[in-house]
Specification:
This protein is of the alpha+beta class. The protein has helices at 28-37, 86-95, 115-127, 169-172, 183-189, 241-249, 261-268, 271-274, 300-308, 312-318, 348-357, 375-389, 402-409, 429-437, 456-467, 471-488; strands spanning 8-13, 42-44, 50-52, 60-61, 67-71, 150-154, 157-161, 203-209, 213-218, 232-237, 255-256, 277-290, 323-325, 365-370, 394-399, 417-421, 491-503, 507-508, 511-512, 519-520, 525-526. Helix 14 (429-437) crosses helix 16.
């Protein structure tokens, strides 16, 4: 098939991204845009291995598994024309530990030697009062950098040293959190880099009109100069999913991430639209987190009781059979998913008995926070509300935007319960389990573990898994964590949602996968 250049790839978002700084990108939609702007050292290969991107080849690893040395491709430039150097890689990874950079996935990088010490030093530095009249500029970092495990050996060679063996570390380097950014631009722009991003990817942001449109054009310095593809990407902002579906049907959009149930039902009956449907099965665990630091969810019996109050098969039917029942925390698409995990049986009588045993014979009242603009979340929230009412628990619904829920649920002792989902960033159990359930990573604010779940045995298993170098023993530790999490019930387990998307027949080269972000459009082209 001939590949063509030219044309405009047309996308849409429900709301503006919170940020297009690679380290701050969180949602699926932000991730799709982010991978058009940035590159990483490595990317995931089709059979579970790795493919070099900005790296010249796969890294040279030390015999003890504690060091990796990368050689960078020659002649790679950022969209501002600046040549990529090893110092930019060091800087990009160090930003993950800097509170001013507000990176969302610090937990990914904690095995880097000296990273957490650098974090604590930065916190103290930022807490030190500034001298009157002293303006340090957008960034107060003072050279040289101080993360012990990151070193620019020369302009094209980077060495990364770890404090412990970490079999998931190369997976981490494939995520957008590890994308490489230019030190000069992040230092010059500070927080404004979030709206003026510069990367090495195939596109660069030309204009961003808040609430209306993001226009991206080809990066004139992109290192894959012969890459076919569109001349520009237009991202319309502020369109709900039903509106996006109508525009797609009229040929006004080229791709739509999520389809509502009514639209999916309608499109399945239309041969032309049915041919545009794309699906990944069971990629998105969707659940109600229970804040284990807010009573009564501090009591395990209460959390177990609420799980027995849920008819998961009814939840699957409510989702128009676009899901399977959730039996544990991992997505079905992740290697190592345990098909033999015990499930909570639907047993309202058992739920009421456990509530009485926990000291709540007449139930209790609580609030469930949910984004009403996400039809899946909202319907599941109402389903949870009705299910818990039947066992004596009164749940009021609190409407909040997606970005508002990210912020509020990451703040300690703020959100008692809420609807949430997760798409793993890579094919390893560590991402979902460590990000969402590792009590060793709890923080006062910006905490991804929004259940604030911490259990001594599980936290110890996480520490052991982080240091385990044998793949089989490491998987065994993760399965122990899975089982204990199910028993401790920090979530009301609901469903594993399928991802149903729409892609026009003239869009070629788009890949849909079961990891974050599910859609990769950086290698697509238009063939009308």
């Amino acid at each position: 098939m001939a590949r063509h250049s030219g044309g405009i790839l047309r996308l849409a978002l429900e709301a503006d991204p919170r940020s297009l700084d690679a380290g701050q990108v969180f949602s699926n939609e932000e991730g799709t845009v982010g991978f058009l702007l940035f590159n990483t050292l490595l990317e995931a290969g089709p059979e579970g291995g790795f493919v070099p991107v900005l790296a010249e080849g796969l890294p040279e690893g030390s015999a003890d598994g504690l060091a990796y040395r990368f050689r960078l491709k020659q002649g790679v430039r950022f969209a501002n024309g600046q040549e990529l150097e090893a110092a930019d890689v060091v800087h990009s990874l160090e930003r993950c530990f800097d509170p001013e950079a507000a990176a969302v996935n610090l937990a990914y990088f904690t095995s880097i030697l000296g990273g957490l010490e650098f974090l604590e030093a930065r916190k103290k530095e930022l807490a030190t009062p500034r001298r009157p009249g002293h303006d340090p500029g957008p960034s107060r970092w003072i050279e040289p950098r101080r993360v012990e495990g990151l070193r620019a050996v020369d302009t094209r060679t980077v060495e990364i040293r770890l404090s412990r063996r970490d079999l998931g570390f190369l997976h981490v380097l494939t995520t957008l959190s590890a994308a490489i950014v230019p030190r000069s631009e992040t230092t010059r722009l500070g927080r404004q880099f979030a709206t003026h991003p510069v990367g090495t990817g195939p596109f660069v942001v030309k204009t961003w009109t808040r609430g209306a449109r993001i226009r991206m054009v080809r990066n004139p310095y992109y290192f894959k100069a012969d890459r076919p593809g569109p001349d520009a990407v237009d991202v319309l902002v502020g369109l709900d999913r039903s509106t996006q579906a109508m525009m797609f049907e009229r040929g006004e959009l080229d791709f739509e991430y999520y389809i509502t149930d009514p639209d999916l039902t309608r499109f399945r009956r239309d041969p032309r639209m049915k041919a545009c449907l794309k699906r990944v099965v069971g990629s998105t665990p969707t659940f109600a987190f229970l804040n284990c630091e807010i009573p009564p969810f501090t009591n395990r019996l209460v959390r177990v009781a609420l799980n027995h109050a849920i008819d998961r098969e009814a939840a699957v039917r409510l989702m128009s059979n676009r899901a399977v029942a959730q039996r544990g925390p991992l997505p079905l698409t992740v290697r190592g998913f345990n098909q033999e995990l015990p499930e909570y049986a639907y047993d309202p009588a058992r739920a009421r008995a456990l509530l009485a045993e926990a000291g709540y014979p007449n139930g209790f009242a609580t609030t469930l926070w949910c984004n009403p603009k996400d039809p899946t979340w909202w319907r599941l929230g109402l389903f949870v509300q009705e299910s818990l009412r039947k066992v004596g628990v009164s749940v009021s619904m609190r409407e909040i935007s997606y970005t508002g829920l990210i912020d509020a649920s990451g703040r300690r002792r703020t959100v008692p319960m809420g609807i949430w989902d997760w798409v793993s960033a890579y094919d390893d159990p560590r991402d979902t389990l460590d990000s969402l359930l590792n009590g060793n990573n709890l923080s006062e604010d910006g905490c991804i573990n929004n259940a604030f779940y911490s259990a001594p045995r599980v936290d110890e298993l996480f520490r052991k898994s982080a240091a385990e170098g044998d793949p089989g023993r490491r998987l065994s530790l993760f399965r122990q964590i899975e089982r204990q999490v199910v028993e401790d019930a920090p979530w009301i387990f609901l469903v594993q949602m399928n991802l149903d998307s729409l892609c026009q027949p003239w869009v070629k080269g788009m890949s849909l996968r079961g990891f974050w972000p599910p859609a990769h459009l950086e290698d697509c082209w238009i063939d009308r």
